[in-house]
Amino acid sequence: MLDRVNHDLLKLLPPDAKVVVEIGCGTGSSGEEYRQINPHCQYIGIERDREKAAIAVDRLNWVTVADIEELAVESLDIAPGSVDCLIFGDLLPYFKNPWDVLKQYSALLNPEGQILATIPNAQYWRRIVNLLRGDWENPDGKMQHWFTLESIKSLFADAGLQVYELQGKGHKTETFSRFQQLLHPMVKALELTSTDFATQTGAQYYIVRSTKSAISPRRLLIQTIIMAPTGCDRVRVLEPDKFSATIPGVRTVSSVKTVESINPLAGEEKIFIWQRTIMQYPAYIPKLKELLQQDYLIVAEIDDNPIRRREYADNNYLSYRGCHCVQTTTEPLAKILRHYNPNVAVFPNQLAYLPPARIYPTENTVTLFFGALNREQDWQPIMAALNRVLVAHKHRIRVKVIHDRRFFEALEIQQKEFEPFCSYERYQEIMYSCDIALLPLVANPVNEMKSDLKFIECAARGVAVLASPTVYENSIIEGETGLIYKHKKEFEIKLNSLINDNILRQQIAANAYEWVRDNRLLCGHYRQRRDWYLQMRDELPRLNAELRGRLPELFSD
C-alpha cells in the first residue's frame, strides 16, 4: 500500500495551525510528519479508502471515511470558520465538480485560512508534444478536468478565494529550449508573448496557495548570507527560513559565503541578513552602500559573544554598527550588542521538530552523553568527580562522547564510545540512545552569553540533564525538568542519584520533554521574525538616520 508524504505541500503548511483538514489523507503519513513540527494541531483526515483510513486513524487526531463529493460539509463535526488550512493534494482535477467542492469546503476556513493543492498543467510542453503525436495523458482514466494557468486562477476565484502564489514545478531541459525555438514562429503568429508562453508550458504541475482573505499579503524577501555554516546555520537560518516561507507573501533565500543576485518580485520589500560575518573596515563599505542603494533593510545575525573574536574590535565593530539592526539569541548577548547598535531583537533558539516521546529499554545499563565544541575548561573542574562516579558504577554505565577527544581520554572507564565531529542527524541519533547528558559551563563572559540549546535538544530526546547554573538555571526547573549542580560535590551527588533512580531520571526527562513541547518549538515563535522585519522596514527612515550618524561614509557619493 502506498505510504507517501506529500513534501511539496507539507513544507508549505503553516507550522502554527490549530486545525488542518486533509482531503484524501491516504494513510496519514503527511499528517504524522507534520505533527512532529506542530504537536498542538488538530489534524483531521478525510479518506474514501477504508484500508488507508484504518492506518491513518493511528496517525491523525481523527479520520472520516467518505467520498468527498458525496459527503455534505455540514455532516462533518467541524465548525465553519475554524480551519486554518485545507489540503486537497492532487485531487481537484479528479472531482466531477471541483468548483462546487471548493465553494463548499472553503466555508470551513477562518478569515485568514489557506487552501493548498497540486494541479497538473494542461499546457506542459511534453503534454503538447505527446498530443501532437496522438498520445494523451490520463493513465488511470479517472481525471475529470484539465487546467491551465489561467483556468486554475478562475477555479479558485469562483470559490471566493485569492491565489497568492502559483509555484510551477518541472524540469526544463535542453529539449525544452528547442521546443521553445521550434514553436517561436507559431507563438509570434498567434500574437502571444514568448516569455508568457515559456512560463505556461514549462511547469509540469502547479502548487497552488490560496487564501480566503481578500487582502493581498505584504511581500517580503529575506535573503541571508551564511558565513558560519558549521553548527549554527540550521537552527539560526535554515529552519527559521523554512518556517517563514510558509507565511503568505514571504520568500526566503540563503547562500553560503557568496551573495546571490535575486530579482525581487513586484512590491516585494527586501531584507539582507549577514550571519556571523566579520566585516573588514573599510573593505565592506562598498558592499553595504550597494545594499542601501538597492533599498535593503540590513540585519546582522549573531549567536556568540563578539569578544571571542578580536577581529570585530579591530574593525571597530562594523559588523553591527554598519547594519540597520541586529538579531541574536539571548538577552545578555543583546545587552552587549546594544553598545554598538541600539536596535537589537532577541530570537531564542527553538526546535523545529519534536521526536516521538521516548520509550526506554528495559536493560539496566545507563548511558551518559557528552557532545560539545571547545569545552575543556568547562569539564576539567568536574572530571575527578565524574570518574569517581564512573568507577563506582562501572558494571552498569557507559559513556558516549562526540568530538572532544581529550574528554574521552580522561574518562577512567572501559565502556566508552567516541564519535568525531559528525552530522546533526548522527548527533541526534547518538543523543537519543543516551539517558543522562552532562552540560557543564563555567561562569565567564563568553559562556554567560550562550543559549540553552543543548538542554532543549536533550529534553526533546528524552535525555535527563545535569547542568551547571551558568545559562541553564534560567531554563531548567530544578528537580522537575533537570538537575543543576553548583559545585563539584553536588555534581557527584546528583549524578549518582540520576544513575541509581530510574524513576527519577525518566520522570525528569518526561517533564522536560513536555516543557519543550509547550514552550520551545519553533512553530510557536517563527512569526516573530517576520513581524520584526516588517516593523523595521516601517521604521527605515529612522534607522537610516541612525546609520548615517554611526557611519556617514555609507551615505557619501
Largest sheet: 7 strands, mixed
Number of DSSP strands? Answer: 19
| Fraction in beta strands | 15-25%
Shape: globular
Counted by DSSP, the helix tally is 21
Average pLDDT works out at: 93
Strand order of the largest sheet: 3-2-1-4-5-7-6
Q: What is the terminal-to-terminal distance?
A: 67 Å
Radius of gyration: 27 Å
Low-confidence stretches: none
Structural class: alpha/beta
Q: Helix share of residues?
A: 25-40%
Structural commentary:
This protein has 557 residues and is an alpha/beta fold. Helix content is 37%, strand content 20%. It has helices spanning 7-10, 29-37, 50-56, 98-106, 125-132, 149-158, 174-189, 194-202, 229-244, 285-293, 310-314, 318-321, 331-337, 376-392, 405-410, 424-432, 453-460, 488-500, 502-519, 527-538, 540-550; strands spanning 19-23, 42-47, 62-65, 83-89, 109-120, 162-169, 205-211, 220-226, 250-256, 269-275, 296-301, 325-328, 344-346, 366-371, 397-402, 416-419, 436-439, 464-467, 483-484. The strands form three sheets. The chain has a seven-stranded mixed sheet. Strands 9-8-10-11-12-13 form a six-stranded parallel sheet, with helices on both faces. A six-stranded parallel sheet has the order 16-15-14-17-18-19, sandwiched between helices. Helix 14 (376-392) links the parallel strand 14 and strand 15. The longest helix has 18 residues, at 502-519. It is globular, with a radius of gyration of 27 Å. The chain starts with 6 loop residues before the first helix and ends in a 7-residue tail after the last helix.
